[in-house]
Amino acid sequence: MAMISDERRIALLVDADNAPAAKIDVILAEVARHGAANVRRAYGNWKSPHLKGWEACLHEYAIRPIQQFAYSSGKNASDMAMVIDAMDLLYAGTLDGFAIVSSDADFTPLVMRLLTDGVKVYGFGEKKTPLPFVNACSVFTYVEALGPQDDAADAADQPVRARKDRAELRQDTRLVQMLRSAVSAVAGDDGWAHLGPVGSQINNQASFDPRNYGYSKLSELVAATDLFEVKKEGLTLYVRALPSGGGGNGNKPGAGKG
Fold first, then answer.
1. How far apart are CA 43 and CA 58, in angstroms?
2. pLDDT tens-digit readout, 195-242
3. Sorted alphabetically, which InterPro entries does this protein's record hold (predicted)?
4. Rounded to an integer, what distance in angstroms lies between the CA atom of residue 224 and that of residue 205?
5. Span(s) in the chain for CATH 3.30.420.610
6. To pair with 45 at 20 to 30 A between CA atoms, which of 26, 51, 224, 256?
7. For domain 166-241, is the CATH number 2.60.40.10?
């Protein structure tokens, strides 16, 4: 009797014209956290010297190159081919999610359409990616925030991956409102909220990844804002919003709920 796998099936679609080949290994590792990338395709005009850096990656990571010639100057036929394939894959009904690798905001309508069918869309792009595309995805991660930063080629990414400090985080009104709303939505009568459901609530609200702010975990980001009281009971973390304008993280050892 065949075993039924509950592993999520994800289509990895790469806009090779607008994605760095050097980051494909860490992108695939990130996709693997969400499921199996059983469809892997990269779109572009493979006759172009601009895509030379991608050639070695295709075979190494079992990515199928989709050739798309530029039929007219100034038009990106690869984008159209990628959108058509995405819709064909969606209608086939065999996938649970899509991972779209691009820094091009033209894919925003595609992301919004995919979401209406209940599939998750994981976006990956460079820091230059326009916000409409970033915000449309279920989760969007800047590629500069992924992987080790040992070599000189990544030196330019340092400012992007540097942690934002307390003042910078508080100035991000979208982030502050998102965190406060999520904590409030799942908090008990005593104001304390389990951090796990808080994270789920945030992901339901908008595209979010704490690494985009320089923090590897949501708990670290929440604590860094200094807008929440944080405590740990066993292996469970709880957070509670401090009064507006309050400061000084209330991480009190041994504090009880309530």
1. 11
2. 888 887 777 666 678 888 888 888 888 888 888 988 888 888 888 888
3. LOTUS-like, NYN, OST-HTH/LOTUS_dom
4. 21
5. 166-241
6. 26
7. no
Contact call for residues 232 and 202 (beta carbons, < 8 A): no
- The tokens describing 34, both together, are 């969400």
Paired tokens of 62 = 């079992």
Q: How far is CA 95 from CA 45, 102, 168, in A?
A: 26, 20, 39
As beta bridge partners, residue 41 has: 13, 64
Domain 9-161, CATH: 3.40.50.1010
Q: Where in the chain is the domain with CATH 3.40.50.1010?
A: 9-161
Q: What are the DSSP E strand ranges found in 2-150?
A: 9-15, 36-44, 64-67, 97-101, 120-125, 139-142
Quick one: which of 68, 126, 118, 76 has its CA closest to 98? 118
Amino acid at 251: N
Structure tokens belonging to residue 60: 């190494």
What's the half-sphere exposure (Cβ side, CA atoms, 13 Å) at 39?
23
pTM beyond cutoff 0.70: no
Residues 6+ apart with CB under 8 A from 2: none
Amino acid at 245: G
The one-letter code for the residue type at 129 is T
The answer to whether 76 touches 49, Cβ cutoff 8 Å, is no
